[in-house]
Amino acid sequence: MNGSSMISPTTTPAPAPSSTPTPASTLTPAPAPSSTPTPSNVPSSRSVPSSSSVPSAPPRVLSIAGSDPSGGAGIQADIKSISAMGGYAMTAITALTVQNTQGVQSVHVPDAAFLSAQLDSLSADIEIDAVKIGMLPTADVIRVVGEWLGRVRPAVVVLDPVMVASSGDSLVEQDARLALLELLDHAHLVTPNLPELGVLVGEPEAQSWESALLQGKRLAARRGIQVLVKGGHLTGDECPDALVGPHGAVTELAGMKILTGNTHGTGCSLSSALATVQVRSLDWALSLRQVKEWLTQALEHSDDLQVGKGRGPVNHFYSLWSTASPLPGAFTQKLWDDCAPVRAAIFELPFITELVHGSLTEAHFAYYLAQDAKYLNAYSRVLARAGELAPTENEQRFWMEGAHNALEVELSLHRDWLSVHPVDQADAIRAEMGPVTKHYVDHLLAAAFAGSYGEVVAAVLPCYWLYADVARVLAPERPGIDGGHPYGRWLDSYADEAFATSARTAVEILDVAARRTNAADRQRMASAFAYSAQCELDFFDAPRLHS
Ligand SMILES: Nc1ncnc2c1ncn2[C@@H]1O[C@H](COP(=O)(O)OP(=O)(O)OP(=O)(O)O)[C@@H](O)[C@H]1O
Ligand SMILES: Cc1ncc(COP(=O)(O)O)c(N)n1
């Protein structure tokens, strides 16, 4: 059953307010505001209407386009783009596609009269500030949209003459391609890609940017319209766009091509975002500059989405999402993932492999322990500072106990080992704080006395987390203490379940702190964590560099 046979358009008139005519066929055309020039005669003068026409509420933007169920193109991309630009999105759906990131498998076109009823219902009730037009699959649909635009005359009309999806599948019947030409009279800006530009000027697709601009000029002059010539289909590293005015003026925006396969829906997103921004900017060149910057970032961040196996969508909301509070576990998981190279490097260090196999020289271990003792003394103060800043009593207790343990338990372990090996290591104990230790401690103290609670916790966390992880990974690899492992007792203290539990608690505390704070603080927390993780790596390697 198709859409048109399920509900007859004539049996479901929109429940319009009593002052508004209901049946689509008898709708009175909305008179064009007298100050608004008609699109076909003076399109370029739209860039300077009086400031009193700029609405303060979010622009009400209607997308007349096809549905892409995978969410990357069509109506779905338009809703996201309009919203990302601060507009209020409305939709009238011209076609339903069976589509994913790999291609279009089928197209269903609802009755054109049903589309007509939707458009009339909207314009009878809502002031529409801008219209974006996308996939118009048949000549019938184009006629309905053309008639409606002719009556309602929205102040901003952007026509994206969609013909072929980026997958190569056709979205428009052959005879509809030429019918699109007539629709140009109702648009203020048309945004063809290079193959579509060729069709609109009746020439083969341009093979260079220069010939694309010439085609754009011919189209703009012939139809008295602004043309956006888009460089997304050019070969090479560059991806320019250019606005060509009806009198031949060209405003070109340079841009580098972003290396991503996720370009599904760039044309839809660009055109609907432009329609939205234009309502307030009233200047196509300004609108393009703002939208291209946003789209470039949306392409840059598209890999974050991980949608589908084919040509994926752009990340319309990268900006909103980068400042939104992260989901539980997400912040600390990202810190952990980002420091994967440091973690891998730790396991490669001769100090670690020799420590585990018991072949590490006592001189290196003694230097390490002596530096660690100095480090732990400062670390204890920083943990106490975390306790001081802690927002809850539980967290305060956790950090204070950590501060106590750093001084007592771990230092006694050091004293024990050094007392059994007193002779050669006396020098090590007396040694000054080494450069690597000092560097690490300075970083911790800076976080402790100039940073937020989150920064302090982020700075101290790698010591917990990396030690617990090293102990967990290496525990099965070493011979047991019964086998006379020279560093067995020391290793056991970090492989202990109580230490692993403390590390997990510290991770959880940081995650909660990250969710409670703002994006700028989260950024500083991430930097503090990454810096400490690198310091941990350097600290393990310091004995080798010292000798
Ligand atoms: N890889 C890319 N890097 C940077 N910008 C790009 C890239 N691909 C497309 N764009 C930009 O996206 C917008 C759409 O360009 P394009 O020429 O691809 O249109 P389109 O073919 O209509 O888009 P669609 O892929 O949705 O059909 C333009 O502003 C273009 O510069
Ligand atoms: C419903 C619909 N409208 C437009 C496009 C074009 O977008 P793209 O060229 O990126 O596939 C599409 N694929 N589907």
UniProtKB/TrEMBL annotation:
* Pathway given in the UniProt record: Cofactor biosynthesis; thiamine diphosphate biosynthesis; 4-amino-2-methyl-5-diphosphomethylpyrimidine from 5-amino-1-(5-phospho-D-ribosyl)imidazole: step 3/3
The Low complexity compositionally biased stretches are 37-63
Name the keywords, alphabetized.
Kinase, Thiamine biosynthesis, Transferase
Stretches assigned to the Pyridoxamine kinase/Phosphomethylpyrimidine kinase domain: 68-315
Signal peptide positions are: none
Q: Which residues form the Thiaminase-2/PQQC domain?
A: 342-542
**Which Pfam families would you find in this protein's record?**
Phos_pyr_kin (PF08543), TENA_THI-4 (PF03070)
Q: Which reaction does it catalyse?
A: 4-amino-5-hydroxymethyl-2-methylpyrimidine + ATP = 4-amino-2-methyl-5-(phosphooxymethyl)pyrimidine + ADP + H(+); 4-amino-2-methyl-5-(phosphooxymethyl)pyrimidine + ATP = 4-amino-2-methyl-5-(diphosphooxymethyl)pyrimidine + ADP
Q: E.C. number, please?
A: 2.7.1.49, 2.7.4.7
Molecular function (GO) terms for this protein are:
hydroxymethylpyrimidine kinase activity; phosphomethylpyrimidine kinase activity
Question: What is the role of the protein in this entry?
Answer: Catalyzes the phosphorylation of hydroxymethylpyrimidine phosphate (HMP-P) to HMP-PP, and of HMP to HMP-P.
Which protein, by its recorded name, is this?
Bifunctional hydroxymethylpyrimidine kinase/phosphomethylpyrimidine kinase
Species of origin reads Arthrobacter cryoconiti
Its gene is thiD
